[in-house]
Amino acid sequence: LNNSYNRKKGYVTQIWQRENYPEVIYSDTFLLTKIKYIYFNPVKKGYVEQPEDWQYSSARNWIKEKHDIIELDPRP
């Protein structure tokens, strides 16, 4: 749907990178490593100071035990 809309409007967008490198999650420790990687990416990029401050992350649900719904802004 998104690609069809973009083609009609002449937009060139890409949400995800083309390459991906799937890995088997073989242990709880490995899963936690991947979760930490995802949570700390916005911190590493300098977007926020703490993982739970990133608006689009579920980190705050785990760290602050705040179970809210992530609100999305409507597309312009």
Automatic annotation (TrEMBL):
Ranges that cross the membrane: none
Family matches, as InterPro entries: Transposase_17_sf (IPR036515)
Any one of the GO BP annotations: DNA transposition
Organism domain of life: Bacteria
Molecular function terms from GO: DNA binding; transposase activity
Protein name: Transposase
Source organism of the structure: Candidatus Magasanikbacteria bacterium CG_4_9_14_0_2_um_filter_42_11
